[in-house]
Amino acid sequence: MARPDKAAAVAELTDRFNSANAAVLTEYRGLTVAQLKTLRTTLRGTATYAVVKNTLTAIAAKQAGLENLEGSLKGPTGIAFVTGDPVEAAKELRAFAKANPTLVIKGGVLEGRPLSAAEVSRLAELEPREVLLAKAAGALKAKLHQAAYVFNAPAAQAVRTIEALREKQAAEA
After folding, report:
1. Chain segment 20-56, per-residue pLDDT in tens
2. For residue 111, which of 89, 72, 79, 82 has the smallest C-alpha distance?
3. What's the CA dihedral at 21, 75, 102, 25 to 10 degrees?
4. Is residue 25 located within the same domain as residue 77?
5. Burial zone of 145 (CB within 10 Å; 0-12 exposed, 13-18 middle, 19+ buried)
6. What is the per-residue pLDDT across 96-108, written as a single tens digit (0 to 9) for each?
7. How far apart are CA 159 and CA 164, in angstroms?
8. Whose CA is closest to 15, among 61, 58, 78?
9. What is the CATH number of the domain that holds 91?
10. Do both 36 and 92 map to the same domain?
11. 143: pLDDT confidence band, cut at 50, 70 and 90?
12. Could you give the CA distance from residue 155 to residue 148 in angstroms, rounded to a whole number?
């Protein structure tokens, strides 16, 4: 029979997996309590960082429908449950890992799809969502401007041709 405290921990982890946009699994071996506090402060607003027990996390991941996390649940594990922008959270984790090499990114999950450590790193290399949206809007605006120019060109050319004929007639008369 499962102990009530462990069942509650599994239920909480399952809820966190279900409510998060993404989750990044890390190994925090060698980090001090102060460094973990700094990491939590750094992630505030985009993610929450929790040190978890691997067996309880494996059970919670299965209950949340995330079957492929078991390979990453070895050694001391901490999970960043991302509720904000996953790209921003991945960038913050990567920056913290560069400053504190003892933090190792093991992998993660993005919208139910498992990610390797390399994929989390590639996610951190993306530009923020707002920049990508601005680039898409700029490209769309450029295409619309180009289309308007193409549609307007025949009429403008006709006007120039008519004006040239008028000037030629005026010069001949």
Report:
1. 888 899 988 888 899 989 989 988 888 889 888 888 8
2. 82
3. -10
4. yes
5. exposed
6. 989 988 888 888 8
7. 9
8. 61
9. 3.30.70.1730
10. yes
11. confident
12. 12
- Dist. CA 85–CA 39, nearest whole Å: 17
Q: What is the pLDDT of residue 57?
A: 87
pTM listed for this prediction: 0.69
Amino acid at 12: E
Range of the domain at 116: 4-126
User: Quick one: tokens of 124?
Assistant: 């951190």
E strands within 22-160?
22-27, 47-52, 77-82, 104-110, 113-116
Structure tokens at 132: 């990508």
Are 151 and 87 members of one domain?
no
| Farthest-apart Cα atoms in the chain, separation | 109
Q: How far apart are CA 154 and CA 168, in angstroms?
A: 21
One domain for residues 69 and 110: yes
Q: Are residues 81 and 95 in the same domain?
A: yes
Residues 164, 88 share a domain: no
